[in-house]
Amino acid sequence: MTQTAVRIDVQSLPPQARHSTIFATFNELPNGQALELVNNHDPRPLFFQFQNSVPGQFDWTYLEQGPETWRVAIKRIKPGSAYDGGSSCCGGGCGG
To answer: Which CATH architecture has domain 4-76?
Structure first.
């Protein structure tokens, strides 16, 4: 099981702050640690943003897959900087 260093319930954040908060938190993680993301739907679009922003630096593991709660462990597996271009994958509608 993946140990998580911090838990982010994205539903408690304003939509415009969600992805930047997630990426800032990920960027601070030491190698081998994970953050736990909690949402009310599948955050799959965020997975693709991670692939574009920090390729090869993370591992994505579903801990719970709905229907009401989705939990994902995003583990840093390689050091590096996370880049968030400030854009949201879908204007905040995806929880990001």
So the answer is: 2-Layer Sandwich (3.30)
